[in-house]
Amino acid sequence: MEYYTWILAFHVMSFMSWMAMLFYQPRLYVYHQEHADNRGFVDVVKIQEGKLYHFIGVPAMWATLLSGGAMIWLNPGLFQSGIWLWVKLVAAALLVAYHFSLGWFMARLQKGECSKSGKFFRAYNEVPTLLMIIIVIMVVIKPV
């Protein structure tokens, strides 16, 4: 299992890339909504939203999920190591749902059909932080 640590390293890097997208995408939505009257600015933000989501977020999410799945497949005994893995997997599933919700909001924003405010997206931006804290604590502390 010498390559397990390489998969783990790839998993951590993928997770970091995915989290960067999850942290920044809602911030773009804040700018989008708070500067809706500035058409040129919004047009640029729309491009940034699409590129960040599709070219960074989606590949990073899949790389994270596939490398995590590979580690579990290579070491199924992880499921007997305590509740930490289950909590991490639930938090990861919530991150996936959050990721797809960002895609849904982006589609609505692109069409000018989103009624959510910049204030909403500021608050919504905290969701991945809370889930990331749970994931990191579970992986580092590994409560039984």
Describe the fold and architecture.
The relative contact order is 0.16. The protein has one domain. α1 packs antiparallel against α2, α1 runs parallel beside α3 and α3 runs antiparallel to α5. The longest helix is centred in the middle third of the chain and has 36 residues. It is 81% helix and 0% strand. By secondary structure, it is mainly alpha-helical.
What is the number of domains?
1
Low-confidence parts lasting 5 or more residues at pLDDT below 50? none
Beta-strand content estimate? under 5%
Strand count, sense and closure of the main sheet?
Answer: none
Number of beta-strand segments: 0
How far is it from the N-terminal to the C-terminal residue, by CA? 24 Å
Structural class: mainly alpha
- Helix segment tally: 5
- Mean pLDDT, as a whole number? 97
Approximate helicity band: over 70%
H and E string: HHHHH
Shape: elongated
Radius of gyration: 17 Å
Summarize this, please?
With 144 residues, this protein is mainly alpha-helical. It is built from five helices and no strands.
SSE map:
Layout: H1 4-34, H2 39-74, H3 84-111, H4 118-124, H5 127-141
Helix pairs in contact: 1-2, 1-3, 1-4, 2-3, 3-5
